[in-house]
Amino acid sequence: MAEIGLDAITKSYNATVAVDDVSLRVGDGEFFVLLGPTGAGKTTTLRTIAGLEMPERGRVTIGGEDVTRAAPAERDVAFVFQQFSLYPHYTVYDNLAFPLRAPARRMAEAEIDRRVRKVAEQLHITPKLGNQATRLSGGEMQRVSIGRALVREPAVYLMDEPLSSLDAKLREGLRVELKHLQVDLGATILYVTHDQVEALTLADRIGVLHEGRLLQVDTPRQIYNDPDDAVVAYQLGAPAINFLPADALGLDTPGVASGAVRPEDVTLIAADAPADGSVPAVDATVTQVERLGPEDVAVFDWHGHTLRALLTPGQAISRGDVVALRFEPDKIMLFDARGRRVRRGADRNTAAGHGAGPMSQRADTGVRNAG
Amino acid sequence: MGSAQAHSIVEPGRLSKRVAVVLVALYALFAVVPMAWIVMTSFKTTEDAIAYPPKVVFDPTLEGYVHLFTNRSRQTEEYMQDLPPAEHWWQEIVREDNMVITGPSRFADRYLNSLVIGFGATFLSVFFGALAAYAFSRFKVPLRDDLMFFILSTRMFPPVAIAIPVFLMYRELGLNDTHLGMIILYTAVNLSLSVWILKGFMDEIPREYEEAAMVDGYTRLQAFVKVVLPQAKAGIAAAAIFCLIFSWNEYNFAILLTSGNAQTAPPFIPLIIGVGGQDWPAVGAAATLFILPAVIFTVLLRKYLLAGITFGAVRR
Ligand SMILES: Nc1ncnc2c1ncn2[C@@H]1O[C@H](COP(=O)(O)OP(=O)(O)OP(=O)(O)O)[C@@H](O)[C@H]1O
Ligand SMILES: [Mg+2]
C-alpha cells in the first residue's frame, strides 16, 4: 500500500476545465472519498492518477514517487471503472485472472488460481466463476469488477462509483463488505461517488469536488458539521440543508448574504406556545409530510421560502397546519455572496486543527466576520 | 404506447412468419438455380451439357473435371487400340472419346495462385486495416477526417483507371507477373474498405476495455491483441469476406499484369472454352471449384458475423 499525492493538477478538455488546480494527499491505508455532483471532474481526477489522462499542469505521486509521465502499467494502481468493463468474451474466472496474467507479471497459474478463488470467496461469486461475463446480474458484474481490482494487491485502489448501478439494498450490503475488506487489507482507496451517504459511511476523509475544484477536505463529521462552503453544506446531508437569505433571517452582519440551517436543527413549537424571546420563531405552513420510516420530514412554506425539518416520532402534523419554527442562532451557518463560509468569532475553535487539505488553509485565511 | 404496438414487436405474428418463409424460400430457389445448374453441368458429358431440351436427370461423370486438369490430344482408332490398358480411371474417361492425356493443364497452378494471392492479400488488408482503424479510432490523429476521406477516395475511381500507371510502375520494379506484386496491389485496393469497416466496429468498443487492461499491467499492443481484436471479431470477419471476394474475383488487373507465372484463375477460366470445341462441363467444373473457397470461407466466418449483430444487445 502507498499514499497518493496530487499537486496542483489541472486538466481540461477543449473549453471545459474538468479538473482545476486540485491538490490532494491520500494517506497510506486511508479510505478517501471524492464527493461531487455529476460533471464535477471526479472521473477525470481518477483517470489522471491512473495515467489514462495526462494533466496539463501539476504532479502526480504514488508512494512518494513522481509518476506524472509514467505509463498506466507502471503505476501499480487498480481501477474499478464507472461503467462495467468486464470482458464479454471471457468467463468470470478469466476476467478475474486477467490482471494477474499480464505478461509483465509472470505469475504462476497455481498462484493465479489461488488468488482468484480467494477473491471470489470474499465477494461471494464462487458459484459464478464459470459463467460468461455477460450472463450475470448487474450486482454480480459489479462484484466481479471490484474483484478484478482486489486480486491485484496494488499500491492503491481507484474506484469510480463502483456501486452506482445497484439497487439500494445491494448497495448497502456491498458498502459494508467493501469497508470490511479495506480495513482487513489496510488498503489505500480513493473512492469516487456522488452519493453523500456512501461518502459519510465509507470515508476516513471526504473531499468535495465541484466544477473541477476541490472545495474542502475533512473527516465526515467535520465536513458535515462545519462546511467551508455553501456547496459543501448542500452536498452533504439528506434532506438537504435549508438556505435562507440573510434579511429573511434578520441577519445584518456585514458580508453575510445567506444563512443555512440543517433540517435537524429546525425545532417545531406549537403555534400558540409563548415565545420566550431569546430565540426567534417564525410561522410557517406545512405543504407536505414525507414519511421516511424512522424519521419523517416536513416541508414548509415560509414567505415563499421552502424549509425542511425533521420531525420527532409522534409529532402529528399534516398539510395546511400553521406551526412555529425555531432555529438556534448558533446553529445557523453564515455564507457570503460567493458562497464562502463566514465564521463568527466563536466558530474559530471548531474550525481549527482539522485536516491539512488546501481548503482548510483557505478557510483559515478566508473572510471572517465577528457575528 | 399506442395501439400500433399492441402486439409484440419482437415476435412477429404467425401469418407474417409464414409469408416471410415463403418469400425467402422463393428467393433462395431463384438464387440457387443458376449455381445448381453450373454444378450439374460440371458433372455432365459434353453431349448432355448442350442437349435440348436441357437434361435435369443424367448420368454423372467426372469428364469435365478430367478435362479441366489435363491437356489431351485426339488420336486415330488404330492408335487407341494399340495402347496398353489404362492405369487410371481418368485415362479411361478420355479414351472413350479417342483421346489421350498429354500432360496436366495449367488450371491447378492458376488455382493455387488464386489461393495464395487471394488469401495473402486478404490477410494483409485486414492486418493493416485493423492497425490503422485502431489508430484512427483511439488516437488524436492530425487531420483525421481528411485522412479517412482520402483513404476512402482511393476506392472511388474504377481500378482500371490506374491500370496503365500501375503496369508501367510494376515493370520498372520487376513486380509484373509476380505473386508479391499482385498481393501488394490487391492489399492496396482493399485497404480502404477494410479500414472503414473496422473503424466502425472499433468505435463501438468501449475504451474502458483497453484502459482497464493497461492499468492492469498490459502494454497498449498487448491490450489491443487481448481485448480489442476479440471484440472486433465481427468486423474482422466482415472485412475479410469483402476483401477475399474482391481479390478472388478480380479480373482486370490479373489479365493485365499476369501471364505465365502468377496468373490467377479468373483470366484462365475463359481460355478453357476455346480448347477443343466448347467444353461446357470443363467450364462448369472450373466455375464450381472456383466458387468453393469463397463459399467455405464465408460459411466459416458466418458465426462471427452473427455474433457481431447481437453485440449491441449485450449489457456492458
Ligand atoms: N473525453 C472528454 N472529452 C470532453 N470533455 C470531457 C471528457 N471527459 C469528461 N469531460 C468533461 O469534463 C467534465 C468532468 O467530467 P468527469 O467525467 O470527470 O465528471 P464526473 O465527476 O466523473 O461526473 P459523473 O458523476 O457524471 O461521472 C465534464 O464537464 C465533462 O463533460
Ligand atoms: Mg464519472
Radius of gyration of chain A, CA atoms, in whole angstroms: 24 Å
Question: What is the helix/strand order of chain A?
Answer: EEEHEEEHHHEHEHEEHHEEEEEEEEEHH
What share of residues of chain B is helical?
A: 55-70%
Number of helices of chain B: 15
Give me the CATH fold name of the largest domain in chain A. Answer: Rossmann fold
What's the gyration radius of chain B in Å? 26 Å
**Number of E strands of chain A:** 19
**Largest interface by Cβ-Cβ < 8 Å:** A-B, 29 and 20 residues
Identify the CATH homologous superfamily of the largest domain in chain B. Answer: MetI-like
CATH class of the largest domain in chain B: Mainly Alpha
What is the CA–CA distance across the termini of chain B? Answer: 27 Å
Under the CATH scheme, which class of the largest domain in chain A?
Answer: Alpha Beta
CATH architecture of the largest domain in chain A: 3-Layer(aba) Sandwich
How many individual domains of chain A?
A: 2
Would you give an account of this structure?
- Chain B: Belongs to the binding-protein-dependent transport system permease family.
- Chain B: The chain crosses the membrane at residues 20-40, 115-135, 147-168, 180-202, 223-248, 280-301.
- Chain B: InterPro entries: BP-dep_ABC_trans_perm, MetI-like, MetI-like_sf.
- Chain B: Keywords: Cell membrane, Membrane, Transmembrane, Transmembrane helix, Transport.
- Chain B: It is a multi-pass membrane protein.
- Chain A: This is ABC transporter domain-containing protein.
- The complex is a heterodimer of chains A (371) and B (316).
- By secondary structure, chain A is of the alpha+beta class.
- Chain A has two domains: 4-233, P-loop containing nucleotide triphosphate hydrolases (Rossmann fold, 3-Layer(aba) Sandwich), CATH 3.40.50; 241-369, Nucleic acid-binding proteins (OB fold (Dihydrolipoamide Acetyltransferase, E2P)).
- Helices cover 25% and strands 29% of the residues of chain A.
- Chain A has helices spanning 42-50, 92-97, 109-122, 138-150, 168-185, 196-202, 220-225, 230-235, 348-351, 358-365; strands at 4-13, 16-26, 31-35, 57-62, 65-66, 77-80, 156-160, 189-193, 205-210, 213-218, 242-245, 258-261, 266-269, 281-291, 296-302, 305-311, 322-327, 333-335, 341-342.
- In chain A, strands 6-7-8-3-9-10 form a six-stranded mixed β-sheet, sandwiched between helices. Chain A has a five-stranded antiparallel β-sheet with strand order 13-17-14-15-16, with no helix packed on it. In chain A, strands 2-1-4-5 form a four-stranded antiparallel β-sheet, with helices on one face.
- Chain A is globular, with a radius of gyration of 24 Å.
- Mean pLDDT of chain B is 88; it is low at 1-5 and 310-316.
- Chain B folds into two domains: 46-105, no CATH class; 108-267 and 285-310, Orthogonal Bundle (MetI-like fold).
- With 316 residues, chain B is mainly alpha-helical.
- In chain B, helix 3 (63-69) crosses helix 15, helix 9 packs antiparallel against helix 12 (233-249) and helix 14 (265-274) packs antiparallel against helix 15 (280-310).
- Helices cover 69% and strands 3% of the residues of chain B.
- The longest helix of chain B has 32 residues, at 107-138.
- The relative contact order of chain B is 0.13.
- Chain B has helices at residues 14-42, 46-50, 63-69, 77-82, 89-95, 107-138, 144-153, 163-173, 179-204, 207-215, 220-231, 233-249, 252-257, 265-274, 280-310, and strands at 70-74, 99-104.
- In chain B, strands 1-2 form a two-stranded antiparallel ribbon.
- At the A-B interface, strand 6 and helix 4 of A face helix 10 and helix 11 of B.
- The complex binds adenosine-5'-triphosphate and magnesium ion (MG).
- Adenosine-5'-triphosphate is lined by residues 13, 16, 18, 36, 38-44, 82, 194 of chain A.
